Amino acid sequence: MPAIIQNDVLIYKGSNFFRQRLLLSTLSGRAVKIEEIRSSHDDPGLREYEVNLIRLLDKITNGTRVELSETGTSMYFQPGILIGGQVTHSCCPQRGIGYYLEVLLALGPFCKEPINAVLQGVTHHDLDVSVDKVKAAALPVLLKFILVDDGLELKVVRRGAPPLGGGEVVFKCPVRRHLRPLQWCKWGLVKRIRGVVYALRVSPTMANRVVESAKGVMLKFLPDVYINTDQCRGSNAGKSPGFGVSLVAETNDKTFYCAEAKSLEPGTGESTLPEDLGRECAMKLLDEIHRGGAVDSSFQWILALWMALGQKDVSECVVGPLSEYTIRFLQHLKEFFGVMFKMEVLREDEDSDDETVISQKVKMTCVGIGYVNISKRTL
Amino acid sequence: MADTAIFDKKKSHRAKHAGRKAEKKKKKNQVDQSNLSARQRNPKAFAIQSVVRAERQFRRKEDVIAKKQHIPQVDKTPLEPPPIVVAIVGPPRVGKTTLINNLIKSFIKTNVTNTNGPITIVTSKKRRITLIECNNDINSMIDIAKCADLVLLLCDASFGFEMEIFEFLNICQVHGMPKVMGVLTHLDMIKNAKKLKMTKKTLKHRFWTEVYQGAKLFYLSGIIHGEYLRNEIKNLSRFISVMKFRALSWRTSHAYILADRMEDITSQDNIRKDPKVSRDIVLYGYVRGVPLMKDSMVHVAGVGDIKISDLSYLPDPCPLPSSERKRHLMERERQIYAPFSGVGGIVYDKDAVYIELKGSHSHKTEDEETNEKKTLLKNVVDTKETIDEQMKETGFKLFSGGAVIYPDMVKDDEYLKQNKNNDESSAESDVETDSESENDSGIDHTEKLPWDNNFDSENGEDVDADDKDNMSNKNEQSSDEDDQSSDTNEEFGAKWKEKLSERATMAYFDRQKTSKNIMKLIYGDFEVGNKVKDQNNDPSEESEEEIGGLFKRVTNSQKRKQKLKDQLDTDECSYFYALNKPLIKDWTNDANRQILINNFVTGKRSADEDAEELLKLDDASDGDDEMYGDFEDLETGEKHKAKEAENDNEVGLKRKAEPIKSEILDKKMKLKAKFDAEYDNPDDHRIKGDHSYYENLKAEALKQSELNKSVFENLDEGLRVEVEGFRSGLYVRMLFKGMPSEFVTNFDASYPILIGSLNMAEQNIGFVSCKVKKHRWYKRILKTNDPLIISLGWRRFQTLPIYSKIEDDLKCRYLKYTPEHVTCNMHFYGPVTPQNTGFLALQTVTNSSTEIKQLGFRIAATGSVNEINKSTQIMKKLKLVGTPLKIYKKTAFVKDMFTSTLEVAKFEGARIKTVSGIRGQIKKALNKPEGAFRATFEDKIQMSDIVFCRTWFKVDVTKFYAPVVNLLLPLGNKNAWLGMKTKGQLKRENNIRNEANTDSMYTEIVRQPKVFKPLVIPKQLQKGLPYKLKPKNNRISTTNKKGKHEGRIAVVKSQYEQKVSKVMKMVRTNYNKKKKDQRVAAQERTSKFKRQQEEDEWRKLKRQKELKKKICRQLSKMSSKKKPQM
């Protein structure tokens, strides 16, 4: 749904990509209006987790103005200036912490003061990237843009499974005046595989069974496989039972692919076998490796964002096949910032076999818009 | 004699033939000494003599090198840079216009009758310049300083530097210093040679202190026949054409345009109905700085922020000469483009077009051409009515000197003719291109024209063309001839619709293979915003799964719509497989595993990475024969392996194994380049030693700038503009809708029209905090909340600043006035601008001579931005005062400090203090007198004490922001923009005086003379004094008496009273006499009585003595008698 622009306000319809729109609005300083939010649903209007996101944005900004209609089916969002600093936020357990963490990660470098956020809620969720994945695969991407790691940190204090959560993470991000342009066209070969299996309020043998099956698959490809188990006790294990695994593949050019799987929520009736879970996660990781590219497929959008927000220089990166989410994000980027990417599909062998064998790689090239962190203070 | 000779002969030197020294020498003589350097011959002489000195030398050398290093910046100049802006600045009547005329004449050998606005000329094979004269208005000076690359600062030498020059230099320093060259004119007015020399010297040195030591200063010695001396001008123009420029930070982050042409394309009808209607304006100019994005916000200096409704590029009206192999400019290549001045053949006013033939050399050769166009133009002018035609009309006015292809006409022609006949159109356009001079902007027939994207009336043709362009660009190496030709045929074919499905299938196969339409997939119809195209394109896009006919496609599009609807409210999720869990391939099965195995370090590498392959390549490059031998070996080896294990064969298939000759050559070249880069770095002479960090930074910047230039080089122009923005150097046309009508009606070309792009968030308004210092030449200090005109970024605006000082705890303390000679903080409500941007402040921009004379120097303050925020925290000191109500021991009730209990509650626990310095604390509010509270102190306070509480009070910044709209002011009055007036100004105008505080008034002081008390010496002291110092009796008496009787009323007694007093006096005298006698008698008596008493006493004592004697004698007699018996 392309935006309609009226007096420099972007007007969207529908609740989808709510997070993208608010994020880009905050960065660009342009107001958005979102209409017809679940207007035809049984329970219309904004969900709790979306309101929670607005709260979080309000906490890290100054001068944000939000107007909600009575039914909650339309909202007007006028962003303020990014402040950052010390924030404590209890995230809505309907979504994982990843939902909020990704926003903070994208905004982090452009705040007035370095973000030091404590987020509480569900650390592992089916819909959102888990905190482990953000830590393993997204932080190295940001590191490529800021080059010097002074205080970029994500610490998982407690884990919490859905539905009740009870997890906590601490996220710290340094601020920058501008991001550097990035050329990242080679991602190398996978050199090691690491992973972590967590078991919350379940038998510790579960974790070991997961490790065994995941390792069994991965060892067919690479001998360097180490999977840790994280047995949490007491308050560290959150409020709900569950277990899960996340695997990270590191290449020799510092690209990280990450896949994860978790057990079904209690109360759904079905139960998950740990062996199946380990195998599923390993398959997902192999799929991710097959897709290739300089970043994990879940973080293509964040790469695109930081490329677009760079200095007025050319950035180019090669990623795997674009996900639907990234495509929509690119469209939004064009609407908010007017930046368009040049996309090229790379093919290694023109004459070689059918489509399924080689995943298409996409070369994204763009000129940064010369975004500078206007919030930062100089003395 | 011989003997003596023998005798005298000294013993000759006998060189040693053996031993240590001999061996040394032998060794030395083995090499030929003659062609060795001194250092090699005698290494000891060059050895380090003193370690300390060597260390110092080394350190100094390193310091010098480090000083030379600057942070490497990415060079952003495009391949074809925009003309350099040369601004001619100076006070009035100093010879600016003459200089411009002379420069133009020296560059292009043409006389220009009147100069107005920017004039672009081609000066050399690689360089164009835009000359612009700055009028005597501080607004223009500011705008010029923001866009000029080179400033020629003119100065009347017979008069000396004027204030304008210093003001201009200050403006420049604030907004990023352009190159400045001073030019001294009117030197012939100084007759005395010695004085001339002295003037030159003093002016030069003054100029140097302002700009930098050794800044270039030109001397134009005089005017002959209204022109400066030819060789001097020649010299100046040579300097201009070789000048190098440094990148300025503001301009390397913002695009800007100095408009050199303006058109009003509002429909005449609307104007007729309402002359004040908002206009649609088209402005033209070269993009400078960084690329300009399509729908970015811009600021038109002197008008305000406005959005570009339409942006397109045009062929260069003043192009650089084509790359002919000639060193000098050809006559016809010396072009001039100055629409405002009416140079280049056609002058146009608001509603008429004039053609000037005189002085335009290019017209002489192409007379027929112009005539033809003139008639054409006339037709159009006659029939113009609709907007479309207006647009055409504006296009007609474009071409200059007949040397530029007229854009809209070309487009129209193409359209018409393409619809009729393909061949005809090509012929026609050929004719046209032929008729123009050869080096025209290179508009080919096949090239897609930019304005195609910007007009709505279009067919799907262009879309196809786009597709083709994209494809052909991306698919360069494997573009087959056949396809191309069919494409071009179709592009111009009228019956393209019939072939659609056929082509769609072809295109589908094409795309299925190459996925070239990925940008389409993402951005949809990004270039052409028309619906026709969307429909046409749907099938080709949709045909991912089906190639089928119309039926399928329609269902597909419906599906897509349904999908969009569904997507409207789905939960967002950044996973690759968002919500639907896919069937993931079973990677463990063998076939699938082979696909993946090479993505691991344990797998096989690609040919250019594999060590084995590389080794082989190296061997192969030694000789062809060997190569083939190796190759054969490899093949057999592989086959052999394949028999053993099938897997490896498959692995091998994936990678290119055979090294081709070209590849080897390629590799060799690469190695050679690497070697060259390492060993003979040409520009490494200055900086030696280990500076790898700096060198790396430099290399990185260089690499980036090369990438910037090269990455879009062979992209289709339309797409390139879309992706990269309108890069600097392009000539663009900008359409602004809703421009105030005053901009057109009061248009004055002598005022520069500067259009600066605004980056993200810069169109927003917020609170800007900056550091500021009052200019030391400005006579007054600045007062908080007095309106101030600030030039910041592209903008000039008036706002109400608040000055403050940052305390040690980072609190901003409100200041009422700016301090002198120190920077202070300033907050104002204004446009969001990046940190570290410089600004300058003026109190007035009007050009009234009285005001200038009064002020002297107009720049009030300069500074730079610190921080942007949406709120401010400026605190003012506040003292709350109260008095004690009741005092207990150390507790006291205090009243009058607050007015309500609520207020007290807010201040509970606050520190208070009495005037006498007794500290205390507010405890709790009292019920009875509203606002009174209980407080405790460290000691008992007095009722007369005053209690005060020190607090801070937040001051808000007034939200006032008014852009200076001097371009909208009436002609001749443009330099008289008046914004908000200061309170003082208003009071002065209305003759309102402050009522003075009577307490502060001066009153006459009356002083009473001091009266001293008479000196009284105590009697005791008097006694001790010598006679000399003793107060004399009479004096005392007189003083006493006088003192006694002075001021008393004299009593005059009556006769009777006199008698009475006489009698009384006599009686008193008698009485006194009697008393005296009695006293004497009494004294005598008492003395007599005392004497008698003494005698009696004496007698009595005598008698007692004798009696004692007798008794004692008796006693002794008795004792002596008794003694012998004892």
TrEMBL record, chain A:
Q: Which PROSITE patterns match?
A: RTC
Has the keyword Nucleus been applied to this entry?
yes
Gene Ontology MF annotations: RNA endonuclease activity
Q: What subcellular locations does the record give?
A: Nucleus, Nucleolus
Q: Name one GO cellular component term.
A: nucleolus
Q: Which GO terms describe its biological process?
A: endonucleolytic cleavage of tricistronic rRNA transcript (SSU-rRNA, 5.8S rRNA, LSU-rRNA)
Q: What is its main location?
A: nucleus
Q: Where is the RNA 3'-terminal phosphate cyclase domain positioned along the sequence?
A: 12-343
Superkingdom per UniProt: Eukaryota
CDD domains associated with the record: RNA_Cyclase_Class_I
Q: Name one Pfam family in it.
A: RTC
Where in this chain does the record put each RNA 3'-terminal phosphate cyclase insert domain? 187-289
Q: Which UniProt keywords apply?
A: Nucleus, Ribosome biogenesis
Is Membrane found in the keyword set?
no
- InterPro entries in the record, alphabetically? RNA3'-term_phos_cycl_insert, RNA3'_phos_cyclase_dom, RNA3'_phos_cyclase_dom_sf, RNA3'_term_phos_cyc, RNA3'_term_phos_cyc_type_2, RNA3'_term_phos_cycl-like_CS, RNA3'P_cycl/enolpyr_Trfase_a/b, RPTC_insert
Give the family per the record. Answer: Belongs to the RNA 3'-terminal cyclase family. Type 2 subfamily.
Protein name as catalogued: RNA 3'-terminal phosphate cyclase-like protein
The organism of origin for this protein = Leptosia nina
Organism lineage reads as: Eukaryota, Metazoa, Ecdysozoa, Arthropoda, Hexapoda
TrEMBL record, chain B:
| Ranges for domain Bms1-type G | 81-246
Q: Which SUPFAM superfamilies match?
A: P-loop containing nucleoside triphosphate hydrolases
Q: Name one GO molecular function term.
A: GTP binding
Which reaction is recorded as catalysed by this protein?
A: GTP + H2O = GDP + phosphate + H(+)
Q: Name one GO cellular component term.
A: 90S preribosome
InterPro entries tied to this protein: AARP2CN, Bms1/Tsr1, Bms1_N, BMS1_TSR1_C, G_Bms1/Tsr1_dom, P-loop_NTPase
CDD domains xref list: BMS1
Q: Which ranges are annotated Acidic residues under compositional bias?
A: 425-441, 458-467, 478-490
Region listing for Disordered, in residue ranges: 1-44, 420-492, 1073-1126
What are the record keywords, sorted? Answer: ATP-binding, GTP-binding, Hydrolase, Nucleotide-binding, Nucleus, Phosphoprotein, Ribosome biogenesis
- Bias class Basic and acidic residues marks the residues at 1085-1099
Where in the cell? Nucleus, Nucleolus
Entry superkingdom: Eukaryota
Q: Which PROSITE patterns match?
A: G_BMS1 (PS51714)
The record's Gene Ontology biological-process terms are: endonucleolytic cleavage of tricistronic rRNA transcript (SSU-rRNA, 5.8S rRNA, LSU-rRNA); maturation of SSU-rRNA from tricistronic rRNA transcript (SSU-rRNA, 5.8S rRNA, LSU-rRNA)
Query: Polar residues: which segments have biased composition?
Result: 31-40
Q: Which family does it belong to?
A: Belongs to the TRAFAC class translation factor GTPase superfamily. Bms1-like GTPase family. BMS1 subfamily.
Task: Please state what the protein is called.
Answer: Bms1-type G domain-containing protein
What species is this protein from?
Leptosia nina
